[in-house]
TrEMBL record:
SMART domains: Semialdhyde_dh (SM00859)
Reported function: Catalyzes the NADPH-dependent formation of L-aspartate-semialdehyde (L-ASA) by the reductive dephosphorylation of L-aspartyl-4-phosphate.
Family: Belongs to the aspartate-semialdehyde dehydrogenase family.
Alphabetical list of Pfam families matching this protein: Semialdhyde_dh, Semialdhyde_dhC
GO BP terms in the entry: 'de novo' L-methionine biosynthetic process; diaminopimelate biosynthetic process; isoleucine biosynthetic process; lysine biosynthetic process via diaminopimelate; threonine biosynthetic process
CDD domains xrefs: ASADH_C_bac_euk_like, VcASADH2_like_N
Keyword Oxidoreductase in record: yes
Catalytic residues, chain numbering: 130, 244
SUPFAM superfamilies: Glyceraldehyde-3-phosphate dehydrogenase-like, C-terminal domain, NAD(P)-binding Rossmann-fold domains
UniProt protein name: Aspartate-semialdehyde dehydrogenase
Reactions listed under catalytic activity: L-aspartate 4-semialdehyde + phosphate + NADP(+) = 4-phospho-L-aspartate + NADPH + H(+)
Length: 339
């Protein structure tokens, strides 16, 4: 049995990764349709060693496909995901549009695959935010063993999370500044991103946190099935192209030694421990966070200031595990469960 798939946002950073991951994994794809806006209709995108013609989303008939992978922004999903779902297509949506609806599963296959039960109610499954996905993959085994009460997290997030405009802005500013030229007025970010760190991702909320930070609160609680877990995030954009890093400081109910945590993580699905207490013995965005599927964990150590505290450094490819790969793993899980 094969599945016909539409990739919505196929010309974007995540859409391109979806197409290459679909081609490289053994997902049973039939026809693949590359959809984007009218602007890029008629162009071409790579699918493995083939080229696909880009079609206009607005003209597409979703009854031709069984799976739709959406990554073209929340407003596009708001309009087209319900139409696709009504046409019988299962939508896996990478935007924040439906994530907080009670009847929409929000799924990281290593953490909460059973949340897929009942997805047929809406025919839409939400893919979580990139910074939340890599964090919960690493925290799930620790929560099972020692019950996480509180998560303090600071993120160091790559510009590819903003899509192609973020990647282009960092590249252009870097080139200009290294050539002694002034930069153009920033457009993807409110301040210069090259050689800088911006404590601002997504829009500000009434409580003074940003929406990216609140996503980490809401989504961690929903995915871990722990409405009581306390999350205190600071989300920061840094001048890295690919790969998000996170400094995570946990407060547990039971003490957990760094040694035990390392063993639990070494056995956890989707996790690779790289923790050598030596020069370079830890994961970084450029070395592990690009074109790799795993969530990498290092710097595992007991908090010297707290009796049940534990610290971690978590790195993963935000475009793959944080978006495209997780969406395709959701599709694979659906197929394994008999879609
Ligand atoms: P397009 O290239 O035609 O604008 P990124 O986040 O990397 O910028 O990618 C966004 C993706 O979403 C692109 O593929 C973009 O297509 C697509 N997209 C944006 N707006 C729309 C729209 N209104 N209809 C269809 N696709 C859209």
């Amino acid at each position: 049995k094969t599945f016909d798939v539409a990739v919505v946002g196929a010309t974007g950073a995540v859409g391109e990764a979806m197409l290459s991951i679909l081609a490289e994994r053994k997902f049973p794809v039939g026809e693949v349709y590359a959809l984007a806006s009218e602007r890029s209709a008629g162009g071409r995108v790579a699918f493995g060693n083939r080229q696909l013609k880009v079609e206009n989303l607005a003209d597409f008939d979703f009854s031709k496909v069984q799976i739709g992978l959406f990554s073209a922004g929340a407003s596009v999903s708001a309009e087209y995901a319900p139409k696709a779902a009504a046409a019988g297509c299962v939508v896996i949506d990478n935007t924040s549009q439906f994530r907080y609806d009670d009847d929409i599963p929000l799924v990281v296959p290593e953490v909460n695959p059973d949340a897929l039960d009942g997805f047929e109610l809406r025919n839409i499954i939400a893919n979580p935010n990139c910074s939340t996905i890599q964090m919960v993959v690493a925290l799930k085994p620790l929560d099972d063993a020692a019950h996480i009460e509180r998560i303090n997290v600071a993120t160091y997030q790559a510009v590819s999370g903003t899509g192609k405009p973020g990647i282009e802005e960092l590249a252009q500013q870097t080139v200009r500044l290294l050539n002694g030229q002034d930069i153009q007025p920033p457009s993807a970010y409110p301040k210069q991103i090259a050689f800088n760190a911006l404590p601002h991702i997504d829009v500000f909320q009434d409580n003074g946190y940003t929406k990216e930070e609140m996503k980490m609160v809401w989504e961690t609680q929903k995915i871990m099935g722990r409405a009581d877990i306390r999350v205190n995030p600071t989300a920061v954009r840094i001048p890295v192209f690919y790969g998000h890093s996170e400094a995570v400081h946990l407060e547990l109910r039971e003490p957990l030694s760094a040694l035990d945590a390392r063993e639990l993580l070494a056995r956890a699905p989707g996790v690779v421990v790289l923790d050598e207490h030596a020069d370079g013995g830890y994961p970084t965005a450029v070395t592990e966070g690009v074109n790799n599927d795993a969530v990498y964990v290092g710097r595992i150590r007991e908090d010297i200031s707290h009796p049940t505290g534990l610290n971690l450094w978590i790195v993963s490819d935000n475009v793959r595990k944080g978006a495209a790969l997780n969406s395709i793993q959701i599709a694979e899980t659906l197929v394994a469960r008999g879609l």
